[in-house]
Amino acid sequence: PQVISHITSKPGGSVYVNDITDPARIFDGRLSYSKGAYLLHMIRWVIGDKAFFQAIRNYLADPAVKYGYAGNEDLIHHFEQQGDTTLTEFFDDWYYGEGYPSYDVSVGWINGESVKVILSQQQSHPSVDFFEMPLPIRFRNSKHDTIVVYDHKTNHQEFITNLGFFPDSVGIDPNYHLISAENSITVN
Predict the structure, then answer these.
(1) Average pLDDT score, the chain
(2) Of 107, 154, 153, 155, which Cα lies nearest the Cα of 134?
């Protein structure tokens, strides 16, 4: 949480460095180091542990980069190959884009065991129109504790989930997989 607070202490800022003549920007602690490291953490969340660590091993053993120069696209290629996905949108938003999302989660009870969840977000910087990410939400009561991961792709997206229990608390991203700040939960 402390690293996320540091990253989100300002509304803008990209990991991508467009001015390589400015050492202060190249070595910016908030963007190059903290946000850059957290992006790796988020990629691990998106593609999974097994694919993430295999991609790192493949990247380090890749003869095309092992004794030469490597660029971001080389590492991205290995993440995409092992994760069997494309990360273009992820890098457009998180690496080249600026800022972070603030999530608004609205939860309504449908019956004793099902909930209707509406996920919305506000971006801290206009360079990103929407951060598409799997968003974990924790539901719990005195006997049950479960995390449901919602594939959040559009604003005001609705989901219905049968939890099998009536929760008395709801939390956003309880294990800190994502960069976000100023999140809110509304329970109806």
Answers:
(1) 95
(2) 153
Phi, psi of 112 (to 5 degrees): -60, -20
Separation CA 184–CA 188 (nearest Å): 13
CA 143, distance to chain mean position in Å, is 29
Distance (Å, whole) CA 172 – CA 183? 8
Looking at 62-163, list the stretches that DSSP marks H as alpha helix, in order from N- to C-terminal side: 63-66, 72-83, 88-90
Q: What is the pLDDT of residue 111?
A: 81
Give the separation between CA 116 and CA 105, rounded to whole angstroms. Answer: 10
Could you give the residue ranges of the DSSP H alpha helices within 48-145?
Answer: 49-61, 63-66, 72-83, 88-90
Q: In the sheet where 157-162 sits, what is the strand order?
A: 157-162, 114-123, 101-109, 184-187
The answer, yes or no, to whether residue 112 has pLDDT greater than 80, is: no
Burial class (CB in 10 A: 0-12, 13-18, 19+), 67: exposed
Parallel, antiparallel, or unpaired for β 114-123 and 157-162?
antiparallel
Radius of gyration over every alpha carbon of the chain, rounded to an integer in angstroms: 18
Cα angle 155, 88, 45 (rounded to 5 degrees) comes to: 70
Quick: pLDDT tens for 126-160: 999 999 999 999 999 999 999 999 999 999 999 99
